[in-house]
UniProtKB/TrEMBL annotation:
<keyword id="KW-0812">Transmembrane</keyword>
<keyword id="KW-0813">Transport</keyword>
<keyword id="KW-1003">Cell membrane</keyword>
<dbReference type="GO" id="GO:0055085">
    <property type="term" value="P:transmembrane transport"/>
</dbReference>
<feature type="transmembrane region" description="Helical">
    <location>
        <begin position="183"/>
        <end position="205"/>
    </location>
</feature>
<dbReference type="GO" id="GO:0005886">
    <property type="term" value="C:plasma membrane"/>
</dbReference>
<protein>
    <submittedName>
        <fullName>ABC transporter permease</fullName>
    </submittedName>
</protein>
<feature type="transmembrane region" description="Helical">
    <location>
        <begin position="106"/>
        <end position="133"/>
    </location>
</feature>
<keyword id="KW-1133">Transmembrane helix</keyword>
<dbReference type="Pfam" id="PF00528">
    <property type="entry name" value="BPD_transp_1"/>
</dbReference>
<dbReference type="InterPro" id="IPR000515">
    <property type="entry name" value="MetI-like"/>
</dbReference>
<dbReference type="InterPro" id="IPR035906">
    <property type="entry name" value="MetI-like_sf"/>
</dbReference>
<feature type="transmembrane region" description="Helical">
    <location>
        <begin position="65"/>
        <end position="94"/>
    </location>
</feature>
<keyword id="KW-0472">Membrane</keyword>
<feature type="domain" description="ABC transmembrane type-1">
    <location>
        <begin position="71"/>
        <end position="262"/>
    </location>
</feature>
<comment type="similarity">
    <text>Belongs to the binding-protein-dependent transport system permease family.</text>
</comment>
<feature type="transmembrane region" description="Helical">
    <location>
        <begin position="248"/>
        <end position="266"/>
    </location>
</feature>
Length: 280
């Protein structure tokens, strides 16, 4: 019995988890592969592969779904969200990492709430307020809605980077006459540049893939790529399915490129370690 409990059961559980992970990964890869193959196929009614392949669906998707305008709007909104999130998030993370005050844990918890709660929970009342003040359906409305989770996310990413910098550097700079602003811009910002780049790229990816808040607040001229992709799903039957799949591939390539760039600057274990240390 001890052999079964101490050896067989843990080993069986480990193989069960591995089998579930392999099953999940294979399903995801098969779905991505089918969409990719379909985006190049002229017709796919019988057999394992389409009868012929052609890249024309990407050109048709570019014209039919006005991807030039959609991509321009997506770039404008994501860059604005990244700039404002870093402009607010970096000083806030510096204050939270350096200062000790009563209620600091409560403030940190409030920063985490928009990340823990599903966006649709606060997205509907937020969209209602934005439409009442006239910002709903505009580009600025989409930017404001996306800032709600993006600023706390930037704070969460930047705080571990700031905590790694020795606070005695601040004191040494002030001893030599540097003001707080000079110390921040000429000493801390260069040291924090890897963290700022990581936070900016992660916020960019999060904004591109944020569907709920963008969908609730975007108008006809302020749709980002993911919202346009959602509406393109309803075009299946009106337009060729291959052009819809081509648009899905463009979206996947956009997000995957950003994710791969982000992984070169971000160590996920660093963020996990930060969360664990807060729990302790």
């Amino acid at each position: 019995m001890d052999f079964i409990r101490d050896t067989m059961l843990p080993r069986a559980w480990r193989w069960f988890v591995i089998a579930c992970m392999v099953f999940f990964v294979i399903n995801v890869l098969l779905i991505i592969t089918s969409v990719l193959v379909s985006s190049f196929g002229t017709g796919w009614f019988t057999g394992w592969l389409p009868e012929q392949f052609t890249p024309k669906w990407y050109g048709e998707a570019w014209k039919e779904f006005q991807l030039q305008h959609v991509l321009l709007v997506t770039v404008e909104i994501t860059l604005a969200v990244v700039a404002i999130s870093l402009g607010v998030g970096v000083p806030a993370a510096y204050a939270l990492a350096r200062l000790q005050f009563k209620g600091k844990s409560l403030v940190m918890l409030m920063f985490l709430v928009p990340l823990l709660v599903p966006p649709i929970t606060y997205g509907i009342p937020l969209a209602t307020v934005l439409y009442q003040v006239g910002a709903g359906g505009t580009m600025w409305g989409v930017i404001l809605a996306n800032l709600v989770p993006s600023v706390p996310f930037a704070v969460l990413v930047m705080t571990p980077f700031i905590e790694q910098i020795d606070p005695r550097l601040d004191s040494a700079a002030r001893v030599f006459g540097a003001s707080s602003l000079t110390t921040f811009w000429r000493i801390l910002v260069p040291l924090l540049m890897p963290g700022i780049l990581a936070a900016g790229i992660l916020v960019l990816i999060r904004t591109i893939s944020m569907f709920e808040l963008t969908f609730l607040t975007a108008g006809p001229d302020s749709q980002t790529l993911i919202v346009a992709l959602y509406y393109s799903m309803f075009a299946a039957g009106v337009r060729a399915q291959q052009s819809v799949d081509a648009m899905a591939v463009i979206y996947m390539l956009t997000t995957m490129t950003g994710l791969l760039i982000a992984l070169r600057f971000v160590d996920p274990s660093q963020l996990v370690g930060r969360v664990k240390s807060q729990k302790v």
